[in-house]
């Protein structure tokens, strides 16, 4: 009997990626909610280098970094495969996603929103085709999961900080893709509530500012 | 259609070296274009418009950026020989983790040490040394990070060997004293032609860095 545990945060886009992957493949697992301000001793033992979530523990072996975990799961459990068949598409998307994440983390820095829009622009112009519903074609793949979590986070940021980032007129492909993504069966059931996330993000930001 | 491969890079860049080693391991013929970072070519600006950084691999006209991504892409496309990524999923995940670690920590910490003085400099020096010690611990008693074979993490880290002399001189410490096992590993890697023919001379790197600092300070 395989033993799988996921240490994460309900609000974290990185934990979301792993959850979606596990759910899309119907893999049973134990969800362990960590407290960012009081991480469990177990987590610190599993990820001593970065002390971060998410961490997947498979039969006692820890795997860290969300995209690394997603690819690992996809290799071991091949049902509903997630890896893009197009090596180039993956090579293009992954750095764009990482950049988006970095910019989102520094949202209050000057030009952060401009930078985010620049990255979104590259993807909008180069990564979508009319024929495909998802990056994976008719089904979700690793690129959809990676972007989905970040876009969800951007949508929350828009609400929480009252800024406009993903404007429909400027990013029509992104909009259409995201609408498909968030309505997809497994994703829809595993998307944290928007209001709950906005409230939490505001509280979280206050706490971080207070502790720095 | 012919396989057209172009690499935009600079000779001292550790990240560019990773790509060159990977291409050499696979026996891929490519055109190399040396970039001048003070005067970036129109091709670079077109192929990496957001970051304007090297290395960029251009495969049949399509650009791929970020050295770790490029190396994995090379491994996937030219999969006929010299596998770079481990086949076991768990080992693969570990390999990706460590290259990610090097990317997030190494260069930034070096740069901070390089550009600071006094107490701040000492702090960053300690941090840089602890990063190397961590990497030495991860290697353990294996001949390579890939186990018996040279692989992804080895490719990810070995280019920094050409910068060790520079780190040592600016940091005033000796790598051999701090992490002898890592030095032994590096020499083992240098026994491979793909590595020894790619890495530049460490003194040349140092002179280049001294020049860079002078240029920064004169601004």
UniProtKB/TrEMBL annotation, chain A:
Signal peptide (residue range): none
Record keywords, A-Z: Transferase
Biological source species: Cajanus cajan (Pigeon pea)
Name of the molecule in the record: glutathione transferase
GO molecular function: glutathione transferase activity
Enzyme's top EC category: transferase
Annotated SUPFAM superfamilies: GST C-terminal domain-like, Thioredoxin-like
Domain GST N-terminal per the UniProt entry, residue ranges: 2-81
Taxonomic classification: Eukaryota, Viridiplantae, Streptophyta, Embryophyta, Tracheophyta
Automatic annotation (TrEMBL), chain B:
Subcellular location: Cytoplasm, Cytosol
Any one Gene Ontology cellular component term annotated for this protein: cytosol
UniProt cross-references to Pfam families, sorted A to Z: GST_C_2, GST_N
Span of domain GST C-terminal: 88-216
Substrates-to-products reaction catalysed: RX + glutathione = an S-substituted glutathione + a halide anion + H(+)
Enzyme class, broadest EC rank: transferase
Keyword flag Cytoplasm: yes
Molecular function terms from GO: glutathione transferase activity; lyase activity
Gene Ontology biological process terms in this record: glutathione metabolic process
PROSITE patterns named among the record's database cross-references: GST_CTER, GST_NTER
Keyword Transferase attributed: yes
Keywords, comma-separated and alphabetical: Cytoplasm, Lyase, Transferase
InterPro entries: Glutathione-S-Trfase_C-like, Glutathione-S-Trfase_C_sf, Glutathione_S-Trfase, Glutathione_S-Trfase_N, GST_C_Tau, Omega/Tau-like, Thioredoxin-like_sf
Domain GST N-terminal span(s) in chain numbering: 3-82
SUPFAM superfamilies noted in UniProt: GST C-terminal domain-like, Thioredoxin-like
EC identifiers of the protein: 2.5.1.18
Described purpose of this protein according to its UniProt entry: Is involved in the conjugation of reduced glutathione to a wide number of exogenous and endogenous hydrophobic electrophiles.
Family statement drawn from the similarity comment of this UniProt entry: Belongs to the GST superfamily.
Protein name as annotated: Glutathione S-transferase
Organism: Cajanus cajan
């Amino acid at each position: 009997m395989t033993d799988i545990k996921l240490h994460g945060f309900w609000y974290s886009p990185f934990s979301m990626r792993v959850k979606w992957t596990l759910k899309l493949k119907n893999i049973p697992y134990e969800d362990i909610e960590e407290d960012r301000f009081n991480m469990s001793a177990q987590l610190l033992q599993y990820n001593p280098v970065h002390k971060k979530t998410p961490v997947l523990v498979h039969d006692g072996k820890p795997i860290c970094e969300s995209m690394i975990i997603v690819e690992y799961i996809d290799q071991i459990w091949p049902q509903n495969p997630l890896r893009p068949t197009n090596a180039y598409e993956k090579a293009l998307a992954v750095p764009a996603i990482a950049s988006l994440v970095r910019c989102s983390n520094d949202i209050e820095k000057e030009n952060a929103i401009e930078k985010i829009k620049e990255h979104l622009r590259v993807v909008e112009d180069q990564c979508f085709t009319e024929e495909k519903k998802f990056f994976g074609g008719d089904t979700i793949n690793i690129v959809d999961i990676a972007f989905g979590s970040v876009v969800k986070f951007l949508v929350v940021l828009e609400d929480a900080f009252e800024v406009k980032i993903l404007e429909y007129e400027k990013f029509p492909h992104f909009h259409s893709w995201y609408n498909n993504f968030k309505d997809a069966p497994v994703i829809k059931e595993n998307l944290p509530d928007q209001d709950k996330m906005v409230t939490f993000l505001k509280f979280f930001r206050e706490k971080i500012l207070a502790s720095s | 259609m012919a396989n057209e491969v172009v690499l935009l890079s600079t000779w001292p860049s550790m990240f560019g070296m990773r790509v060159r080693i990977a291409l050499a391991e696979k026996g891929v013929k490519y055109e190399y274009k040396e970039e001048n970072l003070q005067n970036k070519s129109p091709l670079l600006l077109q192929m990496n418009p957001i970051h304007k950084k090297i290395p960029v691999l251009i495969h049949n006209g399509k650009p791929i950026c970020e050295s770790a991504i490029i190396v994995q892409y090379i491994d996937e496309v030219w999969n006929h020989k010299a596998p770079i990524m481990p086949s076991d999923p768990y080992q693969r995940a570990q390999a990706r983790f460590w290259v990610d670690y090097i990317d997030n920590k190494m260069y930034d910490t070096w740069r901070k040490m390089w550009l600071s003085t006094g107490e701040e400099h000492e702090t960053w020096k300690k941090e840089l040394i602890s990063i190397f010690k961590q990497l030495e611990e991860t290697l353990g008693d294996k001949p390579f990070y890939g186990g018996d074979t040279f692989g992804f993490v080895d490719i990810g880290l070995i280019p920094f060997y050409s910068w060790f002399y520079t780190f040592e001189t600016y940091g005033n410490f000796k790598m051999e004293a701090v992490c002898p096992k890592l030095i032994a590993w590096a020499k083992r890697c240098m026994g491979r032609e793909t590595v020894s023919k790619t890495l530049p001379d460490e003194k040349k790197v140092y002179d280049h860095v001294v020049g860079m600092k002078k240029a920064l300070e004169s601004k």
